[in-house]
Amino acid sequence: xxxTRTLNALKKKNIxxxxxxACYFPRKYLDYxxxxxxxxxxxxxxxxxxxxxxxxxKEVNGKTVxxxxxxxxxxxxxxxxxxxxxxxxxxxxxxxxRQEVVICGKVKYHVVYGYNVTNPTSYHLxxxxxxxxxxxYTKIKNISDDMLKKSIDKCIELITEPLPDVVFxxxxxxxxxxxxxxxxxxxxxxxxxxxxxxxxxEHRLIFNQVLYFTLALxxxxxxxxxxxxxxxxxxxxxxxxxxxxxxxxxLTYDQENACNQILKQMKAGxxxxxxVQGDVGCGKTTIAFLAMILxxxxxxxxxxxxxxxxxxxxxxxxxxxYGDRLGxxxxxxxxxxxxxxxxKVENDISEGNYQFIVGTHSVFSKSTSYKKxxxxxxxxxxxxxxxxxxxxxxxAQTGVHIISMSATPIPRTLADILYGEEKQLVTxxxxxxxxxxVQTAVNRSDEKIFDFVAKQLxxxxxxxxVCPAIEENEAVETVKMESVEETEIKYRERFEPYGVKVGVVxxxxxxxxxxxxxxxxxxxxxQILVSTTVIEVGVNVPNATVIVINNAERFGLAQLxxxxxxxxxxxxxxxxxxxxxxxxx
Length: 585
Description:
With 585 residues, the protein is an alpha/beta fold. It is built from 19 helices and 21 strands. The strands form 4 sheets. The protein has a 7-stranded parallel beta sheet with strand order 11-12-10-13-14-9-15, sandwiched between helices. A 6-stranded parallel beta sheet has the order 16-21-20-17-19-18, with helices on both faces. The longest helix has 29 residues, at 194-222. The radius of gyration is 30 Å and the shape is globular.
């Protein structure tokens, strides 16, 4: 039985069932099966052996520090072992004095201080040492490591095999309980790597995930509620042609191809279900606006849903500039609307007084209804959940045309899996005249990055600096992450003496303060903007030509594409610098 306090702690990690806890797998494994000679041990988390010669205990800044010198057996070199803030370890250290011991931990070498191990994972008398693989878990607040492991083992005993025997006859897979147990307790008599031990168990878990995902897709497709005899056919195309003449540029080949495809299908009474993908600035929004205008001049409403208020406002302002001239009314439906104002807007939408509705998740709230919704467009498709998209589509009385837009490239095969084969995939490769592709490079040198940013600033341009964490203590203990706090200090010290203004935007800031800073950046009152990923979508500053992404390895591919898309929005050559020590990963 797991006590209430532990249950509450698990819930905060979204662990609700026996299977959830059984599948709370280690984040890494430490291989202490073999004692390594010192020559092989440096920079490895491993087991080394030696003679414990001296030990001491002292107080430093109010914390207990235990030190021991171990003469390593293969080299005769001294290894300095230290425990910080672990006063209870002293009795064992003292007890093992002048005996052969095995130390398990990260071995470091310093040219001045020599070999050392800090806060070893464990230590043993050599005569008692039994080498094994140690699983390391992400800590859960209010649950000790021992309690977590015991609770996981209890849950593994209770899980059952979900698949019939016939599956194992065909696939030769490991059974489910054995696979889960192996991932928590890797063991093998053979001299093989940890990865080779884990591989059969991982294959079984991957099989489960793919099977459940496929079944969920089949079930979802079988109960598709959006099929309809209503096809929202268009007849009039004059206004859409007028819109194209208003544009300050000529459509690229890819844009023209996408627009013709949409027009052809709508004219023929075929439902449009399209994913338009392409780099930021390639003109996806122009295609969306054309489709909305086609709908409006044929008596239908369109909804454009964006993932952030900033991006929604940006779309609203641009759509108004065209819609007003064409005689169509546009409204921004956002959480900023209060009381009676929101009620009036929702009433006007339900009566069909607005042809274009732009907003965030507010567009699919229960209080919002539409008169004749014919087109749903989701910008930055990957930022919305399936239920959010479905909620909007269900607002239509009958089936609707659906256009999704994404700056993250999705291969055809993956698109088929995610959306089904009925989803058309249109890729915009050619950029509008004047736009230049963003050049991307990896670099780890602060000095080189500072010099490059300085060159761009000297040309009158601006820069983004993106960090994975706000404060230094948010960093994972095994990885040095550059926080907004320390990055801001670095850039202020380097650039402010030359009159460069540095601003900061994070998700923890007051909304008004963040918008004020972004506006100042747009107006070039701030030249360097240090931020988290809050600028990922919707910030449009054509004068910004360089973005530096610190700890780039900490971001997903979709995020890197979005962040890179903050530059290259004007006619200047633009650059994305991925700062990472994992250069080749």
